[in-house]
Amino acid sequence: DTEVTQTPKHLVMGMTNKKSLKCEQHMGHRAMYWYKQKAKKPPELMFVYSYEKLSINESVPSRFSPECPNSSLLNLHLHALQPEDSALYLCASSQVGLSYNEQFFGPGTRLTVL
Amino acid sequence: KNEVEQSPQNLTAQEGEFITINCSYSVGISALHWLQQHPGGGIVSLFMLSSGKKKHGRLIATINIQEKHSSLHITASHPRDSAVYICAVRSGYGGSQGNLIFGKGTKLSVKP
After folding, report:
1. Do the Cβ atoms of A99 and B98 come within 8 Å?
2. What is the pLDDT of residue A2?
3. 3-class secondary structure, A88
């Protein structure tokens, strides 16, 4: 299984809602990533988890809260988002320990904040 | 100046043409990735290179570390190759997770 899965595929939420994005992989990867991608722009790194611990937080607002409950799952909890947070949210995973490890990307969740 | 530059930004080709997309970078890297993204879709990793050349089907990727340059070639292009192709580099060596630095992408349209 060389796949990263993400749910839901699409999400529409209001600014007062609380929702979560989910990411799962079964490749034994111990590094997992959240990226945000706006239209016609490259992905921007948000968070990196290494061995289920947050290792990189790229100054992301606290309305985005990541969680890595186990080595296969990565969540992104959303609360009080703004319309400008509408974007494609991509999850990725890779092995840990060597800086040239390949990242495998999921299909993304298309988020619209009304 | 961006650390990763791609050219061209947009490319239109006729089916069957040979296509080349270029990527230049200005930082020391441990690996370079070529990624493919279809409209509205997720990202597929095509190649990861640290030296030399790799081939997969109709796709060929090369890298010249001394010149800090990589190319992605598509032979016998097909409309289904239409996508955005992104060059991304991983800076630094060894250790834990270095960030990927992304180019702005090349939008390829292959006409039948």
Report:
1. yes
2. 66
3. strand
Structure confidence by residue, pLDDT tens digits, A42-96: 999 999 999 999 988 888 999 999 999 999 999 999 999 999 999 999 999 998 8
Closest to A56 in 3D by CA, of B10, B97, B111: B97
Q: Do B41 and A108 touch (CB under 8 A)?
A: yes
Give the tens place of pLDDT for each residue, A100-114.
678 899 999 999 999
Amino acid A7 reads T
Could you write out the DSSP letters of every residue in B77-92?
A: --GGG-EEEEEEEEES
Q: Flag if A42 and B86 touch (Cβ within 8 Å).
A: yes
Q: Which two tokens stand for residue B103?
A: 């180019």
Query: How many angstroms away from the CA of B2 is the closest CA of chain A?
Result: 12
Q: Which residue has the tokens 């992304």?
A: B102
Please tell me which of the candidates B30, B44, B86 has its beta carbon nearest to residue A100. Answer: B30
Question: How many Cβ pairs within 8 Å bridge chains A and B?
Answer: 67
Interacting residues of B8 by C-beta distance below 8 A, sequence separation 6+: B21, B106
* Gap from B13 CA to chain A (nearest CA, Å): 20
Q: What angle do CA B80, B86, B88 make, to 5 degrees?
A: 150
To the nearest whole angstrom, how far is the Cα of A36 from the nearest Cα of chain B?
12
